[in-house]
Amino acid sequence: xxxxxxxxxxxxxxxxxxxxxxxxxxxxxxxxxxxxxxxxxxxxxxxxxxxxxxxxxxxxxxxxxxxxxxxxxxxxxxxxxxxxxxxxxxxxxxxxxxxxxxxxxxxxxxxxxxxxxxxxxxxxxxxxxxxxxxxxxxxxxxxxxxxxxxxxxxxxxxxxxxxxxxxxxxxxxxxxxxxxxxxxxxxxxxxxxxxxxxxxxxxxxxxxxxxxxxxxxxxxxxxxxxxxxxxxxxxxxxxxxxxxxxxxxxxxxxxxxxxxxxxxxxxxxxxxxxxxxxxxxxxxxxxxxxxxxxxx
Amino acid sequence: xxxxxxxxxxxxxxxxxxxxxxxxxxxxxxxxxxxxxxxxxxxxxxxxxxxxxxxxxxxxxxxxxxxxxxxxxxxxxxxxxxxxxxxxxxxxxxxxxxxxxxxxxxxxxxxxxxxxxxxxxxxxxxxxxxxxxxxxxxxxxxxxxxxxxxxxxxxxxxxxxxxxxxxxxxxxxxxxxxxxxxxxxxxxxxxxxxxxxxxxxxxxxxxxxxxxxxxxxxxxxxxxxxxxxxxxxxxxxxxxxxxxxxxxxxxxxxxxxxxxxxxxxxxxxxxxxxxxxxxxxxxxxxxxxxxxxxxxxxxxxxxxxxxxxxxxxxxxxxxxxxxxxxxxxxxxxxxxxxxxxxxxxxxxxxxxxxxxxxxxxxxxxxxxxxxxxxxxxxxxxxxxxxxxxxxxxxxxxxxxxxxxxxxxxx
Lengths: 296, 410
Fold this sequence. Notes:
The structure holds 2 protein chains of 2 kinds. By secondary structure, chain A is mostly helical. Chain A has helices at 10-37, 52-59, 61-94, 100-106, 114-125, 130-137, 157-182, 185-192, 197-226, 229-234, 242-250, 258-294. The model of chain A has no long low-confidence stretch (mean pLDDT 83). In chain B, strands 1, 2, 3, 4, 7, 11 and 12 form a 7-stranded mixed sheet that branches. Chains A and B meet through helix 1 and helix 3 of A and helix 1, helix 4, helix 5, helix 11 and helix 17 of B.
C-alpha cells in the first residue's frame, strides 16, 4: 500500500464547524454526568469526589436484577429480530417478483416511534387485548384473563415482542439491500462451478452479508439496552430494566438523589461500551479465524 | 471546493444556529413589582407575552388553557398568554440549569405543588413572595387557610398562589360493583371475592402513590404524619401495619400483585377494558369527563373512603428568572377570578375544585358556582370537603414509596 499520500485534511476542515458543535454538546453532557455521579454539587460547590454513589449502585439488588433483565431482553429480542430479518430478506431476495408494496409495508414499523410501538403491542397482546378477545370469541378460552400474561410479566415477554416488532423490519431493510447487491455475477459464477442453493447461501451470501448482520445486531442491542420507554410501559414493576431504574431515580424531586441516578447512568453507559468492545473483539477474532480456515 | 465556499458554508451554519436564539418582546426586566401599584403592574404587562409551563398530560386541561384562559387574558389585559406543556421534573431541571448558567429564562409561571415546590423553593428557583400583591388573593382567598399556607406540610410563604384543589376518589362501575368498599377492610374482602380484578399504578406514578398513602392513612391514621421527620426508620415503623396489609392484599390483586400498571393512563385503560374493577383519580370530576367521552361505562361512579381521602392543592409559582413578572402577576390574578375558577370547575372544561373562600363570595358569585352542572357519577363539593385528609410532608413521599417497593414488589 502506498504510504506516500499526504493526509487529506480538507474533508476534516469542512466537517469542523458541525463536528465541533456536536462534539461540544456530547462531551459537555458526558462531563456533567460524570461530575455529578462523583458527587459534584450542582449548586456550584464542589464537594469531595466520592465513589460512594457507584458503590451504592452496585450494592443495590434492584440494580443487579435490572441489569440481568435488560441484558436478557435485549439479547433475546435482538437475536430474534436479526434471525427474522435476515431470513425474510433472504426469501424476499430470492423472489422473481418485486413485491414492492409488500416490502414497504414490512418496513413500516421502522418509522413508528417506540412509544407508539409499546401501545400497539399493549393493545394486541394484553389480557384484554385484541388476540385475547378473538380467543374468547372463537371459544379457545373462557375468559380474557386466561390469556397468558405477556405484558408486565417478569420475563419481559411484552418488551421482547415490542423490540422484535421494531427490530426485524429494520434488519430486513438493511439486509435486503445488501443481499440484493450480492446477487448477480458472483452468483452466476458460483452456479457455473456447480454450487447448489445451500452452498450459495453458506459460502457466498452469508459471509458477504456478515458485516451488515453484525452491525445491525450491535445497533439494535445497544439501543434496546439503553432505551427506557418500552420497558417502562410494557415491563414489570420489578425487576425494572436499567434505563427505567435510572429514569425513576432521576425524576425524584429530592435532588440529593441526583448523584446516585448519574452513577447509575454512567454504569449503564460503561456496560454498553464494554459490551460493544467485547463484541468487536469477538467479531475480529471470528473473521480472522474464518479467513484463515478458508485460505487453507 | 475552495476556501470561499467553505467560508460561506460556515457563515450559513452560524446564521442558522443563531436564528434559534431569537428573543421575544419583553418588557423591562429590571422592574420590581413589589414596589409598584396594581395599576402600574397592569400597564407594564399590557402588550406583553406570558408563558405558563406545566404538566400537559391531560388534553382537556390543555384545551381549556389554550381556549378559555388564553382568550380571556388576551381580551381583558391585552396579554398574549401561552400554555407550554412540560413535565415538572423537566421544568425544574431547566430552571436549575438556567440558574447555574446564569441564563435568561423563558417561563413566567409554573404549575407546581408538593415535593416539587419543596425542591424549587429550597433551591431558590422561585420569585417571591408575591401573593400579597394580587387583588384577587386579598378579595377571595383566606391567607390563614392551612391549604394556602402549607403545601404538603411545607410553608408556602407567599411564593405560590393557589390554583385548584384535588381530592383522591375511587371509581367503580355501579353495575359490577353495587356496594363499593369504603374502607380498607371492605377493600380486602372485595379483593378476596374477585381475585385478580383490583390493582393500582405503582410508584412513582403520582396517583398510585397517593392511593397507597390513603390506604395507609385508613389503617394507621393520619395525624402522626404531620410534621414527621423524613427518617427512614421512623417512617418504616409508622407505616408497618400498612405494609402488613399490603402483603395480605397482594395475592388477591391483579397479576397476584407481582406487577402493577406503570401509569394511571394504563390503569384507566384496564378499567375501561373491564380487566379491573376500580380506578382512582385525583380529579374528582374525572369520571364525568370519561363517561361523556365514552371511555368509561355510563354506570361509573366515584366513591371515597368513610375515613376520608387525601386532598391537596396545586399552585402557580413564578420562576426566579421570569422575563415578564408583571405579566405573570396579572395572569395569576385573573386565574383567581370567579369566572375563571368557575370555568375550571365545570366538568366540560376540567372539573377541578375551586380555591376561592366561600365566605368571601357574594350571593351572586356563589350562584355562579352552584349553577355548574356536576356531571354523572361525581361527588358534590361538600361531601368531598368534609372528608378531606391532608397530605404527608413532601419529603416523606419518596421514603414511603421506597419502603413499599422493597417490601411488596422486590
